[in-house]
Amino acid sequence: MADFIVHSLPGSPFGRAVLATLEEKGAAYRLAPVAPGTLRSPQHLALHPFGRVPVFEHDGFRLYETQAILRYLDRVLPEPALTPSDVRRMARMDQVMNVNDWYLFQGVANVIIFQRIIGPRLMGMTPDEAVIEAAMPKAQMVFEELSRLLGDAPYFTGEEVSLADLMVAPGVEFFTMTPEWAVLGPPRANLVAWLARMQARPSMQATTWERVSELAKAA
Ligand SMILES: N[C@@H](CCC(=O)N[C@@H](CS)C(=O)NCC(=O)O)C(=O)O
Predict the structure, then answer these.
(1) Quick check: CB of 144 below 6 Å from ligand 1?
(2) Whole-model pTM?
(3) Residue 118 in contact with ligand 1 by CB distance below 6 A
(4) What is the average pLDDT across 11-22?
(5) How does pLDDT run across 75-90, given as a tens digit for each residue?
(6) Ligand 1 neighbourhood includes 39 CB (under 6 angstroms)
(7) What is the pLDDT of residues 126-150, one digit of tens each?
(8) Which of the residues 19, 23, 58, 60 has the least number of beta carbons within 10 Å of its own beta carbon?
(9) 14 lines ligand 1 (CB under 6 A)
(10) Starting at the edge strand that comes first in sequence, how are the strands of the sheet with 55-58 ordered?
C-alpha cells in the first residue's frame, strides 16, 4: 500500500508536478483520480475548499497547494535533494515556482492551454481566438523571463534539477501542443533545450497525460 496519495486528474500540470516529484524520489504512490466536473462537489470541497487539484495525503496528513506539497516531499524524502543548498540558488528556485503560479499559470496557461487543449478535449469547446490573442503579450513576457532566468544553465538553479523545473515543465510542455509555441518556444533556444532535457527524464515520461489516464483507469 502506497504511503502517498495524490488526488488529481489527467492533464493537470500542478498534479503532474507532484507526481513527477514522487517519481524523482522513487517513491511509491497511489493516484486517487478526481473526475472532471466534480471539483465543486461536496466530497471534493471537503478535501480542497477551493475546489482544485492536486490534493495530497501522507499517513493521515492532508495538504493542498502544489508548492507546499513539493517542499514537504523534499523534506520527508531527502534523497535525491530537489532543493539546492546554496541560499541564492534556493531563492531562485522559490522565485521560479512563484513565476509559475502567478504569471505562467494566471492569465497565460489558464487561458491559452484552457482554450486550446483542456476546453476542447474535456468540454468539446472551440478555442476563442480573440481570448488567446489577448493573452499573448503576457505569454511573451513570461516566456522571455523564464528564458532569462534559465540563462545558460541546464536547469533553473544550475547543474541539478530542482522543484522549480518540476513545477514549470508540465505547464511549458502543454504549449508545445499549441500553434502559439512557434512564437513562444523556438525563438528561445535555451528554453527549448531545457524542455527537451526535462522531457527526457523518466519522471516526466511516467507522468504524461496518457500515463496518468492509465493510472486513473487502473485505480
Ligand atoms: N495554487 C494551486 C493551483 C491548483 C490549480 O489551479 N489546479 C487546477 C488544475 S491544474 C484546477 O484545479 N483547476 C480547476 C478550476 O480552476 O476549477 C496549487 O498550487 O495547487
Answers:
(1) no
(2) 0.97
(3) no
(4) 97
(5) 999 999 999 999 999 9
(6) yes
(7) 999 999 999 999 999 999 999 999 9
(8) 60
(9) yes
(10) 29-33, 4-8, 55-58, 61-64
> Whose CA is closest to atom 13 on ligand 1?
52
117 alpha carbon to ligand 1 midpoint, in Å?
16
For 87-203, the fitting CATH number among 3.90.1150.10, 1.20.1050.10, 3.30.930.10, 2.40.40.20 is 1.20.1050.10
Q: Tell whether ligand 1 has an atom less than 6 A from the beta carbon of residue 216.
A: no
What's the CA gap between 116 and 109, in Å, rounded? Answer: 10
CA dihedral over 206, 29, 53, 58, signed as positive or negative: negative
Q: Is 53 in the pocket of ligand 1 (CB under 6 A)?
A: yes
The pLDDT confidence band at residue 2, using thresholds 50, 70 and 90, is: low
**Cα 122 to Cα 147: distance, rounded to the nearest angstrom:** 31
Task: Assign domain 4-81 to its CATH architecture.
Answer: 3-Layer(aba) Sandwich (3.40)
Helices (H), ranges, 41-107: 42-47, 66-76, 87-99
Give the model confidence (pLDDT) of 172-218 as tens digits. Answer: 999 999 999 999 999 999 999 999 999 999 999 999 999 999 999 99
Residue nearest to atom 12 of ligand 1 (CA): 52
Atom of ligand 1 nearest to the CA of 13: 10
